[in-house]
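User: I'm preparing a small set of examples for a lab meeting where we compare how different chains pack in three dimensions. I only have the primary sequence for this one, and I'd like the structure in token form so I can line it up with the others. Please keep the answer compact; I'll paste it straight into my notes.
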Amino acid sequence: MFCFIYGQSTTHISIHSNEKTVIKKNNGINDHYIVSAKQVRIRDIEKITGRKLTLKQKIAFKIYQWKLIKEAKKINKDRTSKRSTAALVLSILSLASIILFPLSVLLAVISIILASRSIKENYEDKRAKTAMTLSILALGIVIVGLLAYGVLFSDGAFKIFIIN
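Assistant: Understood. Below is the structure token output for the 164-residue chain.
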């Protein structure tokens, strides 16, 4: 948190890694701003406080901003949930069991549900995105396989596709 004191008013600037917008809170003569670490610039701080920052303050701000972003990345890596891991395992199993298509479809659908919930929880979860992709791929392979089986081995309505 940066605190700039000048005159009789105080400006508090809280920089958080998870906020998306600038929020201003007025407490009498004190102003409190909550801003995102990725989005805030030195110009923004100067605009909020109404004065130029010294070189020492600019360097301190950039170091603090870098540490906040680094810490946020570490937290996001740790937030990979058990749900996304389970979705990834189920999607790999659905690809492995393509020959048993009912089982593959069931595993892929469960994996898609788990992956979508995990993505809603943490949008940057790469395991969940990979699980979603693999599950959709498994469903696509099953559908193409069933259509090919129907075209090649049926005597019914698919006969129009067979060239004699």
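A couple of notes for your slides: The first strand starts at residue 2 and ends at 6. The chain has two domains: 2-78, 82-161.

User: Perfect, thanks.
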